[in-house]
């Protein structure tokens, strides 16, 4: 990502995990025009539902083979405001 030209930085696709809100911040600081997209397991569509609702909501999530991509975001954490600010959409 750091070595791409501005024209090549149209989209940044990241795993929708609590740690990757920092990656979204980095991408947007390198190129504010880059569209950041989160991807996540069907069993835990937390970012997708947050963005759809426009707020942090408690969800029932299922287990996945990748524990880092499953689960809710803690209330009061910095994760959700960063997701709202930098991530345009999320898919599952």
Largest sheet: 3 strands, parallel
First and last CA, distance: 23 Å
- What's the rounded overall pLDDT mean? 82
Q: Give me the secondary-structure category.
A: alpha/beta
| CATH class categorisation | Alpha Beta
Q: What portion of residues belong to β-strands? A: 15-25%
What is Rg?
13 Å
CATH topology title: Rossmann fold
Number of structural domains: 1
Sequence of strands across the biggest β-sheet: 1-2-3
Give me the CATH architecture, please. Answer: 3-Layer(aba) Sandwich
Task: Provide a descriptive summary of the structure in words.
The protein has helices at 21-30, 46-53, 79-86; strands at 11-15, 35-39, 87-91. It is an alpha/beta fold and 92 residues long. It has one domain (6-91): Rossmann fold. The chain has a three-stranded parallel β-sheet. Helix 1 (21-30) runs parallel beside helix 3 (79-86). The chain is globular, with a radius of gyration of 13 Å. The two termini are 23 Å apart. Residues 22-88 form the Tryptophan synthase beta chain-like PALP domain. It comes from marine sediment metagenome. One of its GO terms (molecular function) is L-serine ammonia-lyase activity. One of its GO terms (biological process) is L-threonine catabolic process.
Summarize the structure.
The protein is an alpha/beta fold and 92 residues long.
Sequence-ordered SSE layout with sheet pairings:
Elements: E1 11-15, H1 21-30, E2 35-39, H2 46-53, H3 79-86, E3 87-91
Parallel strand pairs: 1-2, 2-3
Give keywords:
3 helices; 3 strands; three-stranded parallel sheet; Rossmann fold; single chain; 92 residues
């Amino acid at each position: 990502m750091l070595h791409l030209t501005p024209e090549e930085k149209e989209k940044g696709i990241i795993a929708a995990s609590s740690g990757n809100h920092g990656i979204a911040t980095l991408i947007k600081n390198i190129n504010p025009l880059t569209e950041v997209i989160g991807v996540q397991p069907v069993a835990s569509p937390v970012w997708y539902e947050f963005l759809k609702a426009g707020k942090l909501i408690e969800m029932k999530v299922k287990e996945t083979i990748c524990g880092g991509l499953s689960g809710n975001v803690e209330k009061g954490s910095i994760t959700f405001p960063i997701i709202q600010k930098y991530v345009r959409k999320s898919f599952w």
